[in-house]
Q: What sequence folds into this?
């Protein structure tokens, strides 16, 4: 949850969606008690306890508030209070006990839903996000609960796979393990897909694409059956209200639909910070994890074209060492055309969205994507591969530019379109305004989620009566 700790876009969703729902639903967030969470919740009070089972230790449940949203914190120092990130240690390796850690989180959600955590509050529905808590849907069924579960898949490629021998430690019998076994390993994500009442993804197009073998990650047959029975759908993520070029505290200068001068000021600030000279050509940006999925090799492949045509490329992010090295080499090769900010800084990333003319997003697959929506809100036009949520959020030639194949030649042709667009001020301004006006608030997504919650609850009632 981005209020405390963030590892990817899920942290933004976990912070923003509950805020969009809180006036219309009694929503609470359950999050492990990482060091950052404990440090950020000095008023934490204990409200419940989850007893030990098999190899999963007992955990306390604390409660605090984050922006008006009640947050339940799973307190177990031996599992969660350690260095590194939520998923990996300081060297980037998965924690060896991740199966126990996230089974503890999943089981706590199920125990709370069953009313067995000693708490006064009990949910009518569990909304589970990705593999770290997907096992909760299975625990619910194994414990005989009738509380329905909705599983949101943010990225099917991350499935939470663990040795089959871990089943006993997690309190899973051999018979129960059969439904959650994927090619000889326990799959937390498969457990959620099999046992949840409904599965949704973070865009309509991605929900369709994962039912085929190309993007189904080996679960396409299962997901295809869910789609056929009406148990698979998609809702595009939103972005929060802080992404406003008129008020954002991180920007060098503010701007709006009618006054563009502020974009120029932010562009100049980005150029100076990255050691790039003043240029009236277009500034292309990459704001991304530097990983293969995001197509960074494709962005690097078009850098020479951008430089030769009088443009500049600004890159911020960290990730795979090989790609980091390739990006660094680009900046040395084209010192006046390519600038790199290693690592990540929220404020500078926002300046890049506000100052760049185009955002490169050649992702090989993209369940939803948030960067393209951030860019649009700030009048920066996405250049995106037509996949997943990028299809649902970028209208080609109106709010950005799309290309159909994830290869360098297709991206080069789209970059050529961008240069042509940049040279026609009227067209560029019209597209910027259309992008900035595109509806993308969490209030819209929150309304869709409430409808889905009601649908899942309504479907569960007849089943129970039968």
A:
């Amino acid at each position: 949850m981005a209020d405390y700790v963030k590892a990817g876009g899920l942290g933004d969703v976990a912070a923003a969606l509950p805020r969009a729902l809180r006036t219309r639903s009694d929503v609470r967030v359950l999050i492990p008690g990482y060091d950052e969470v404990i440090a950020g919740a000095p008023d934490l009070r204990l409200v419940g306890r989850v007893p030990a089972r098999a190899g999963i230790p007992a955990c306390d449940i604390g409660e605090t508030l984050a922006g008006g949203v009640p947050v339940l914190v799973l307190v177990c120092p031996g599992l969660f209070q350690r260095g590194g990130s939520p998923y990996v240690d300081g060297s980037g390796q998965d924690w060896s006990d991740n199966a126990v850690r996230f089974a503890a989180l999943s089981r706590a959600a199920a125990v709370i839903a069953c009313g067995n955590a000693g708490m006064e509050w009990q949910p009518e529905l569990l909304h589970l996000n990705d593999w770290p808590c997907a096992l909760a849907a299975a625990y619910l069924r194994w414990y005989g609960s009738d509380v329905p579960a909705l599983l949101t898949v943010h990225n099917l490629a991350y499935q939470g796979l663990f040795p089959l021998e871990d089943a006993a430690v997690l309190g899973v019998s051999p018979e129960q393990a059969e439904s959650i076994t994927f090619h000889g390993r326990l799959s937390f994500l498969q457990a959620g897909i099999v046992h949840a009442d409904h599965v949704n993804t973070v865009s309509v197009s991605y929900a369709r694409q994962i039912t085929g073998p190309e993007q189904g990650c080996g679960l396409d047959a299962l997901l295809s059956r869910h789609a056929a029975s009406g148990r698979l759908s998609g809702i595009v993520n939103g972005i929060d209200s802080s992404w406003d070029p008129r008020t954002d505290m991180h920007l060098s200068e503010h701007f709006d639909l009618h006054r563009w001068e502020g974009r120029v000021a932010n562009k100049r600030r980005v150029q100076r910070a990255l050691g790039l000279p003043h240029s009236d050509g277009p500034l292309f940006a990459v704001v991304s994890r530097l990983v293969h999925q995001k197509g960074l090799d494709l962005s690097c492949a078009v850098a020479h074209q951008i430089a030769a045509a009088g443009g500049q490329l600004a890159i911020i992010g960290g990730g795979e060492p090989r790609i980091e090295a390739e990006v660094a080499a680009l900046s040395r090769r084209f010192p006046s055309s390519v600038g790199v900010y290693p690592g990540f800084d929220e404020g500078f990333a926002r300046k890049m969205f506000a100052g760049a003319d185009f955002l490169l997003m050649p992702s090989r697959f993209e369940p939803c994507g948030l960067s393209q929506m951030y860019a649009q809100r700030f009048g920066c036009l996405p250049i995106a591969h037509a996949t997943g949520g990028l299809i649902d959020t970028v209208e080609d030639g109106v709010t950005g530019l799309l290309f159909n194949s994830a290869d360098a030649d297709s991206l080069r042709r789209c970059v050529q379109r961008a240069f042509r667009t940049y040279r026609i001020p009227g067209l560029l301004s019209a597209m910027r305004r259309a992008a900035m006006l595109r509806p993308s608030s969490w209030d819209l997504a929150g309304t869709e989620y409430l409808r889905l919650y009601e649908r899942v609850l309504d479907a569960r009632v007849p089943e129970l009566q039968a």
User: Anything to note?
Assistant: DSSP finds 19 helices and 17 strands in the chain. The chain has two domains: 9-239+444-465, 261-440.
